[in-house]
Amino acid sequence: MRRILNPLVGRSFKSSGFRRLVQSAFTRLQSLKNYRHGRYSEDRNDVVRLLQDGLPKLALSRCEQMIKHQNLLDAYGMIEGYLNLLVERINLLARGRECPNELKEAVSSVVFAASRWKDFPELEDIKSILTSQFGKEFAGRAVELRNNNSVNDSIMQKLSTRKPNMESKMNLLRVIASENSITLQFDEQGELSGSIQSRKRNRQQNRSVDLTTNSYQTRSSSRKHRR
């Protein structure tokens, strides 16, 4: 990848090299999306299983991970759209040292996302090219979210390090429960009922029943043999 990047940084903007780099970024994006989709599906299956096992509070905590996965998937989609726009308007991109107004949001959002994704080297290379083209001051406003940074608000929210709030987690839990015909139970304070302890007690009761049944079957079999 650096063989693409090095001839571009510090020199005049090379449209053909930038296009190749964006294509490499698309390949990486697809890989990242596939991975994140897999993680999302695994966590969703875990939520269903936890609900079926009578552990709604653990299921709720797993919803937090699902929301984080979905936020990343949404952000990947937005960055893919911005990169497509930059390639479509590449003549504007290469025209001068000042970022065109119609591309400021796309450029700023890509630069911002690159600074948050350490597992996306191709986007980091694109960020370096855009920084070289439009200056460190322009890129710094996007990375540090200074005034007039032009970064898309949704991208900021999707890549925020803040934990999802309770309302969003509960909404997701209700949707999953409804789709699987599971009724959520709430206590008098309006909180989810069900706990690990109650589940353990149920397992212990079931184990006791199994032991009693096996003991009875063994005694019955012994009596038959004596006859």
UniProtKB/TrEMBL annotation:
Region: Disordered, residue numbers: 193-227
Annotated Polar residues bias: 209-220
InterPro entries: Ist1 (IPR005061), IST1-like (IPR042277)
Family, per entry: Belongs to the IST1 family.
Protein name: Uncharacterized protein
Record organism: Citrullus colocynthis (colocynth)
The organism's taxonomic lineage, starting at the top: Eukaryota, Viridiplantae, Streptophyta, Embryophyta, Tracheophyta
